[in-house]
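Dear Dr. V.,

Thank you for agreeing to look over these. As mentioned in my earlier message, I'm a first-year student in the group and I'm still getting used to reading structure tokens, so any feedback on how I've presented them would be very welcome. I ran two proteins. I've put each sequence directly above its structure. The first is here:
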Amino acid sequence: MTNINDIAKQMVADGKGILAADESSGTIKKRFDNIKVESSETSRMNYRRVLFESKEAMENYISGVILFDETIRQCNKDGEKLVDIIKRSGSLPGIKVDMGAKMLSKMNNETVTEGLDGLRERLSEYSSLGAKFAKWRAVIAIGEYNPSPLCINVNSHALARYASLCQEAGIVPIVEPEILMDGSHDIQKCYDVTKETLLKVFDDLIAHKVDLKGICLKPNMVIDGTKASNKSSSKEIAEMTVKCFKESVPTEVPGIVFLSGGQSETDATENLNEINKIENTPWKLSFSYGRALQSSALGVWRGKSENEGQCSKAFTHRAKMNSLASKGHWSKDKEI
């Protein structure tokens, strides 16, 4: 039987990253609204199926796919389970298990991620449906007075409880504390909040006896806020990100897969590439992107069966670009 440490290593295999296809029904409806496609169970299945059936991308560049509850139960029109399509490519099926960020009472527009109730039982079911790993996202916003110590503490504690339950079920937890890009803060503020959050998260993981060799960390890059007056270069982002992690992430963690967090497709790739140019990092540094892997593919697809080939091609291109970036081998001329 494969253990969680082996699965975690497989999730950060050389040149591979994780496709985040776990958009909630509300989020994917917004994406479909933008391309004027009705969001139905069938249309959502068809779009995701095209990605999962992209043989070149899935076999060569994607180590795992994070699924939504609906998707892990779906079959294609021929009755084949989407999970089995993913497995056939050599990729691992995963599942989003949190119930979303909800307002933290009596605090200044801060949130706490919910979903711990009944999680042990849900993990058992997801395991039986084929899930090898899971994901839980905590959301930390930067503002004039935020984040508060309470916000960091409650989200960190929930991540640790979730991770412990995952490992109990033989499932690798993706631990995702996301410091949002929203705001006018500079890169130093992002650095400080990211470091404070990660130190607390790992303290709590250790307190909950989580095996750090059997997790995958999915953090933000250390980056300026979207409304910041000055924008750091990719090289500065890479240096600050690696410095922050060296001060806060234990070396036992097998890999770090970055979230794109609202970056454009090429920005997310370029920044990942610069990060991987830095030598002597103790972890695999790769990607777990949603929009930054799918935006072009979704724009090409537009809900039409005759566009499936072009959709697959666009997805494969982005997966390949990020594969190159995960080795520090990407360059702008390869985008053509």
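The second protein is here, in the same arrangement:
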Amino acid sequence: MRKSRIKEVKEKLKREKIFILFLFLGFFLIAFVCITLGNMFYKQAEDFSGLVDAAKDPVVLTAIWISISAAICSTLIAFFFGVPLAYFLARKDFFGKSIIESIVDVPLVVPHIVAGIALYGVFMRSGVIGAPFEQVGIAFTDAFPGIVIAMLFVSLPFLVDAAREGFKEVDPRLENVARSLGASHWRTFIKITFPLAFSSIFSGAILCWARGISEFAAVMIIASFPRSASILIGDRFTSYGLSGLPGIAGSRPISVLLISICLVIFVLLRMLGKRRRR
């Protein structure tokens, strides 16, 4: 009995050896992330009062709220315009499709300082888009809308690409059946296509939101005020270093606080997405 059990275990290990190897290789990346962030949290734990000061600082809390709310706004805009584009790209083949897909992905390869400069040229008060909005009292430079468009530019590919792949996985025959039964194209999209692709769209929206939160360079160029969390962290690092001064939180405690808040939100959203799929 024992020999058969040992033989069974050996056979199982033999079948699973490729997964064990891949887990070992992938663990390198997991360790890389955990060591990097874990060291920061460990160092900050030695100065817990600094973290408490950061959590009580209204300037810090305002900056974090600006980052979270601006990222939400940019994600909603990306969702409203990006999901229809993703569906179109998933269902239609046409001349120039690869060009459009490449344009969507350009923000992934453009240095973000360059993206900020490009956005500033268009949305500054005398820019092509900025000037007309200035006439109706909407400013982008050094204003909350500027933070939103900077986050939108760098994060939109994550949502569009994920949504496109999600729509591709939906069998067009299901749509054809619904249409043959009398459903309109719009009703078919709402009742069949969108729900089946929702998990991919939701994952893309989470990544879009997370990428917006992390943006620094483009936001710094077009809207360094009001200060978002990334801008505040950069300012505090330049002025006060990692730990800061008594009564003034440095860059590290603010970073730990921001990561902690975003991590909680990120985990909750992932759990919500898994429950939705079930």
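From my reading of the second output: The first helix runs from residue 2 to 45. The chain has one domain: 50-277. Does that match how you would interpret it?

Kind regards,
E.
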